[in-house]
Design brief:
Blueprint lengths: L9 E5 L2 E5 L3 E3 L12 E3 L7 E4 L2 E5 L16 E5 L2 E4 L5 H11 L30 H15 L13 E2 L3 H9 L52 E8 L17 E8 L15 E5 L11 E2 L3 E3 L2
Parallel strand pairs: 3-4, 10-13
Antiparallel strand pairs: 1-2, 4-5, 5-8, 6-7, 8-14, 9-14, 10-11, 11-12
Length: 301
């Protein structure tokens, strides 16, 4: 057995204090009711579990003295993010397979390592789906939006409610009200994530099933480690001129998209809330012998 999912109480950090929430999943018809902060819900049986998180203002990027900092993480700047729902986990192999079965979508094999894909026998249904490009992630999201609107697969022109997170939303969600390098503190510690030096059973060997480690204070799992996660934003070398309202940065090198979070084979320096990287939007592979996956966000009424 590769591991048991961690069961934990979800704790939401709000400006006024801490608010707790149960882990019960509440099905809600799309576009009918508002979701309470901390609520865990699904819009359809095949939809990913979402967690409603509060809006807020935070310092994006890393301070100049943060250990392991790269120039691309600055200058640190204030950003406001609205309340949104964020995928409780990365999209899993099982969830992506449901989309492929429904649509016949074929993203193809992994560019590297050759001969592998998200279908490879080494992956289990509870693993995060990997070896998917930015375009593959958006194809899944298009299907998800058609699904929740009750429209045929392949419907185009839908604007939400699901999409990739913006880079600002991703970092805000990863920090979950904290200011340290990682939501659990400045040091990597032991048993907090899956990386090359995180002190887990999966370190530098393989993916871990989603939810194998404790959630952050917003109730989100695996924001750091295991797989890199695609965001909506085009790549820019630093934050000069970056949006301050949480929107995606849609200028710059849009052939490359921002990846966040680090992975199972990366050293701890890449597993920081402010750490940034990028890859071609077409690639189904990544440097450092790692894979890229994704999670989704959902607009709230």
């Amino acid at each position: 057995m590769r591991g048991l999912w961690t069961v934990a109480v979800l704790v939401l950090l709000l400006a006024a204090g801490a608010v707790s929430a149960t882990a019960k999943v509440t099905p809600r018809p799309i576009g009918t009711q508002a979701h309470a902060i901390g609520e865990v819900f699904r819009d359809c049986p095949e939809c990913p579990e979402m967690v409603a998180i509060p809006g807020g203002r935070f310092a994006m990027g890393s301070p100049s003295g943060e250990r392991g900092r790269y120039d691309a993480e600055g200058p640190q700047h204030a950003v406001s993010v609205p309340a949104i729902a964020v995928g409780r986990y990365d999209v899993t192999v099982q969830e992506f397979a449901t989309f492929v079965k429904a649509t016949g979508y074929d993203g193809g094999a992994c560019d590297w390592p050759s001969g592998t894909s998200w279908r490879s026998s080494g992956f289990i249904p509870a693993d995060p789906v990997v070896c998917v490009s930015w375009h593959d992630a958006n194809a899944y999201i298009d299907w998800l939006n058609a699904r929740v609107h009750g429209l045929p697969s392949g419907s185009t022109g839908l604007k939400g409610p699901y999409r990739l997170p913006t880079e600002a939303e991703w970092e805000y969600a990863a920090r979950a009200g904290t200011r340290t390098s990682r939501w659990w503190g400045d040091g990597i510690g032991t048993g907090n994530a899956n990386c090359n030096g995180c002190g887990s059973r999966w370190d530098d060997k393989q993916l871990s099933p989603v939810g194998s480690f404790p959630p952050n204070p917003f109730g989100l799992y695996d924001m750091l480690g295991n797989v890199w996660q695609w965001t909506e934003d085009c790549w820019n070398e630093n934050y000069e001129g970056a949006p301050a309202d949480g929107r995606a940065w849609t200028s710059g090198d849009c052939g490359k998209r921002v990846l966040r979070g680090g992975s199972w084979s990366n050293l701890p320096t890449f597993l920081r809330s402010a750490a940034r990287n990028r890859d071609s939007a077409d690639n189904r592979s990544f440097d450092f012998a790692s894979y890229a996956g994704f999670r989704v966000v959902r607009e709230l009424p």
